Amino acid sequence: MELRNAITSIIGFVFTIGAVVLWIKGFWIEGFLAAILGELIDMPQRIAEHLTEPRRT
Hints:
This protein has a domain at 19-57. 89% of the residues lie in helices and 0% in strands. The chain contains one helix and no strands. It starts with a helix and ends in a 5-residue tail after the last helix. The relative contact order is 0.06.
């Protein structure tokens, strides 16, 4: 009976660690995607600024 409790505790612990790792990874990936989206949204404005700025000779 104690062995079963120990196994259950270990499995619960592993699942908790796995959930935390996945949450951190998901959070990181979410931040990464937000950064990429931000870049894509800024890109047309940067291109327009680049095209409209006077040429340096």
